[in-house]
Amino acid sequence: DQQVKQNSPSLSVQEGRISILNCDYTNSMFDYFLWYKKYPAEGPTFLISISSIKDKNEDGRFTVFLNKSAKHLSLHIVPSQPGDSAVYFCAACRRDDKIIFGKGTRLHILP
Amino acid sequence: DGGITQSPKYLFRKEGQNVTLSCEQNLNHDAMYWYRQDPGQGLRLIYYSQIVNDFQKGDIAEGYSVSREKKESFPLTVTSAQKNPTAFYLCASSIRDRGLLYGYTFGSGTRLTVV
Question: Out of A14, A57, B8, B92, which could bridge A50 as a Cys pair, Cβ 3.0 to 4.6 Å?
Answer without folding.
Answer: A57
